[in-house]
Amino acid sequence: LIIYAGLEGLKNEILPPVAADINLFGANISEEITKKYKTLPLTLEQAKKAASESVFLRSCLTEKIIKEYTM
User: Fold this and answer.
1) How far is 50 from 29, CA to CA, in rounded Å?
2) Average pLDDT for consecutive 10-residue bins of the chain (71 residues)?
3) Under 8 Å CB-to-CB from 35, ≥6 apart: which residues?
4) CA 49, CA 47: separation in Å to the nearest integer?
5) C-alpha to C-alpha distances, 29 to 9, 20, 39, 56, 67, nearest whole angstrom
6) Left if phi > 0, otherwise alpha if psi is -120 to 50, otherwise beta: which for 13?
7) Is the pTM here over 0.70, yes or no?
8) Sign of the C-alpha dihedral, residues 58, 54, 12, 18?
9) Cα separations in angstroms, 38 against 9, 18, 35, 68
10) How many angstroms separate the CA atoms of 16 and 23, rounded?
11) Integer angstrom CA distances of residue 46 from 19, 27, 69
């Protein structure tokens, strides 16, 4: 998936985000600086839901594989 993501970025000329020059592990979630970053799902159920709704994953994996990991 990482290779597919890289190829997708090259194909669509997507620029990577600006580097985070702070320690995000020690940053307070409520701080203004952290609000511009997306967060990962906090639970397995949230991760499964995100994966099952992902257009990108559907372009890389078969429906059978997606169902196997998200059910």
Assistant:
1) 21
2) 94 88 73 75 94 93 93 87
3) none
4) 5
5) 28, 14, 10, 28, 33
6) left
7) no
8) negative
9) 18, 13, 8, 26
10) 19
11) 26, 23, 13
